[in-house]
Design a protein that fits this description.
The chain contains two helices and five strands. The protein is of the alpha+beta class. The protein is globular and about 25 Å long.
Length: about 70
């Protein structure tokens, strides 16, 4: 995932910043608590395709700086 691309992508629901989760190939949004999948290197920025983050994942994001 290119840093340049990550810098311009925002959550379509909250317009907030996203955090790249390279282990799970997802873009995470703290505000909406959604995880957007990255398929074949292409972020799928549709709320219908996103999954809800678990409470544990949300807690981990709160401690994430970035």
């Amino acid at each position: 995932m290119e840093k340049r691309l990550l810098d311009i992508l925002i959550c379509p629901v909250t317009k907030g910043p996203l955090i790249y989760d390279k282990d799970n190939h997802e873009l995470l949004c703290k505000s909406s608590r959604l995880a957007y999948p990255i398929r074949d290197g292409i972020p799928v920025m549709l709320s219908d395709e996103a999954r809800s983050l678990t409470l544990e994942e949300v807690e981990q994001l709160k401690s994430h700086h970035g």
